[in-house]
Design brief:
The strands form 6 sheets. A 9-stranded antiparallel sheet has the order 3-4-5-21-18-23-16-13-6, with helices on one face. It has a 4-stranded antiparallel sheet with strand order 17-22-19-20, with helices on one face. It has a 3-stranded antiparallel sheet with strand order 7-8-12. It is α+β, with helices and mostly antiparallel strands. The chain has 9 helices and 23 strands. Bound molecules: 2-oxoglutaric acid (AKG). InterPro entries: Alkb (IPR004574), AlkB-like (IPR027450), AlkB-like_sf (IPR037151), Oxoglu/Fe-dep_dioxygenase_dom (IPR005123).
Length: 370
């Protein structure tokens, strides 16, 4: 969870970085400079294939004998729905009360950075400056989270996390938006205010529902803005359609935390497991929009060889059963792969979304926490 251009967040377990693990070997091969080698992709022809009804269409779900619980659903989300999710994400979700990575570094407009950008593009005004937030000079609250369970695992990441958990967390209440912001994990290089066109490309993530502390990898169980209703409805339909495969009853499904990830070519997400949720039975739903990427999926043991899938706009990955805790990551976002269906084609209202998506991959993933 988390990424920044050429910097990987969260820090990987030390052995992930050794060239010896199968995961790391495939990551390096996929990332190798130059043209992506398509032969690294998993052959999907021989994989078990199921058909489900979703959004009034019959669609194929690909399963993997070696990776039980992993389902890959190409073209799961119809184009119009892709567009409305991306639009709602940028206009409505990346703004208070939800927190995004930029909040720790900048005082953003309470209407959200996207709406400020669009308003400026549609005006004849000079480019707005975004004011830098300074954690050195603001009055900070020392915020102690309700629970801090220590982890038994013996890995570098866990040791770092355990050290961080011993310290008081530094957070600040943004009085414009009434949202609590955690101190940044890493500082941005410049202390100067910046143009909005410099800041928008640095949007990396935004959290929905249960807000997340990225440094100690725990949810803030007391910071829970309402989950967007459209996502609740869409995910209910998906979990219902998949019941026969995941064995998870849709009556129990409740999306409680979501992350919207924004990647540009060159950004990566290193191998990780999603383990912060208490409920490990509910499936994790993950959607791709915009540019294509290569997604690696392994097992709970990172020394085992993962598979590589190419995810296109509208594709969905479902991690359930034993696959819910498997290592996975995104070593490559492929430039110039925006599909024609997401181009404006004369639709003036979509122009700025097309510009943004032509150099961005958006991932939305949904989890049940309890
Ligand atoms: O971008 C993706 O497809 C995966 C995102 C992910 O694994 C995460 O946010 O934990």
């Amino acid at each position: 969870m988390g990424r920044k251009k050429k910097v990987v967040v969260p820090p990987p377990d030390s052995d992930v970085w050794q060239n010896t693990t199968e995961f790391r070997i495939l990551e390096r091969k996929v990332k190798r400079k130059g043209q992506f080698d398509e032969s690294l992709l998993e052959n999907l022809q021989d994989k078990p294939c199921h058909t489900i009804q979703l959004f009034n269409r019959s669609i194929k779900v690909i399963a993997f004998d070696k990776f039980p619980g992993l389902y890959y659903i190409p073209n799961a989300i119809p184009v119009e729905l892709q567009k409305s999710i991306v639009k709602e994400a940028l206009e409505e979700w990346v703004r208070p009360p939800n927190v995004c990575n930029l909040d720790s570094h900048f005082h953003l407009n309470p209407n959200g950075i996207w709406n400020e950008y669009v308003a400026w593009k549609n005006s004849s005004q000079s480019e707005p400056k975004i004011k830098k937030r300074n954690f050195d000079t603001v009055q900070v609250d020392q915020y102690a989270p309700p629970s801090r369970n220590t982890t038994e695992e013996n890995c570098e990441t866990c040791k770092v996390t355990a050290e961080l958990k011993k310290k008081p967390l530094v957070s600040v209440l943004d009085t414009d938006t009434n949202v609590i912001i955690d101190a940044p994990v890493t500082k941005m290089s410049s202390n100067d205010d910046q143009n909005i066109t410099q800041v928008l490309p640095r949007l990396r993530w935004c959290t929905l529902g249960h807000q997340y502390n990225w440094s100690i990898k725990e949810y803030h169980f007391d910071r829970v803005p309402p989950f967007p209703q459209s996502i609740v409805d869409i995910s209910n339909e998906i979990v219902h359609s998949l019941e026969g495969l995941t064995q998870y009853p849709s009556s129990k499904w409740k999306p409680e935390a979501g992350i919207i990830n924004f990647y540009q070519p060159g950004d990566t997400l290193t191998a990780h497991q999603d383990k912060s949720e208490i409920n490990t039975q509910a499936p994790l739903l993950s959607f791709s929009f915009g540019l294509e990427c290569v997604f690696l999926f392994g097992t709970e043991d990172k020394s085992e060889k993962p598979i590589a899938l190419k995810l296109k706009s509208g594709d969905m990955v479902v991690m359930s059963g034993p696959g819910r805790r498997a290592f996975h990551g995104v070593p490559l976002v492929i430039k110039d792969t925006l599909p024609d269906t997401l181009k404006a084609n004369g639709d003036k209202d979509w122009d700025l979304f097309q510009d943004y998506l032509s150099h961005t991959r958006v991932n939305l993933n949904l989890r049940q926490v309890y």
